[in-house]
Design a protein that fits this description.
alpha/beta; Udp-n-acetylmuramoylalanyl-d-glutamate--2,6- Diaminopimelate Ligase, Chain: A, domain 1; UDP N-Acetylglucosamine Acyltransferase, domain 1; 2 domains; twelve-stranded mixed β-sheet; ten-stranded parallel β-sheet; about 10% helix; about 30% strand; flat
Amino acid sequence: MAGDSRFFQCRGPFDLATVALHAEGESDPSQILLEGIAPLHEAKPTDITFLDNRRYLQTLADTRAGAVIVHPSLRAHVPSHTIAIRSAEPYAAWARVCLLFHPDVESVPGIHPTAFIDPLAIVDASASIGPLVVVKAGASIGCRARIEAGAIIQNGVVIGSDCVIGAGASLSHAILGSRVHIGPGCRIGQEGFGFASTESGFLAIPQLGRVLIEDDVRVGANTAVDRGSARDTIIGAGTWIDNLVQIAHNVTIGRHCIIVAQVGIAGSTQIGDFVRLGGQAAIAGHVEVGARASIGAQAGVIGNVPPGAKLLGSPAQPKRDFLKQMAKLRQTIKPRVA
């Protein structure tokens, strides 16, 4: 069930005009009231849904929804009993409508009695500090920030306004901008994997940098971001990072990148703006990935990547070359005769 009230804040019903306004779309006039959101195949006459993929046109034809968000080119496919809200970007319109019916949980200012706040920490009066949170000396928590249960904010960490720090996360040696979301269980600012080899074993190299996370960054659950060794690890504004990602020391990630689950980025690598890294991709250390490059799932990058390149495979290579090789490989494999 979408939007279970046990877990999500629920609002509505809303008239069609209000919903269309929030969707930033257009619709024919109607007095219909919409009570909630639902997928195409489950939607009731009081629900709104959306379609952003022509593969599901038959599901659209069968839907019972009261309204559906579609691209203008698909308006003719909407059944007569369903109101079409036309949008050039249906998925973005759907996101705005979902927030209308199910807005983000608002933080309640205050400090839970089981939290420990060092007297030398600074916590804005509008911040929300959950149970068993630890905020150590010199840390700073900005206005309307929300620190969830069991999170640990180490000495000197700066958390900007409207940030959310998930349950059980730990932050050290880090400076966060505004509207940063750190998922549950994240480890931000721990010591990087730096050592010198000697005849008697390994010698740890002090990791003396920081983690700088700019505005509007999201970091998924159980992701680890190491602090720099002699310079900072940096995550650029607007970048979204999935769960279970490893970002090593001295890495620089540009603005508005997408980094999918289980990606590993080795030390001192530089990622340009608007780069996309598919799930389980591995990026070797000390390489540069140019702006707007796209690295496919499970690709292994061992050298510099030009801006705008699309790579697949391990070792990673241009997408076109990889697909040609796969086609030739299939041709050389002869079916076994029984």
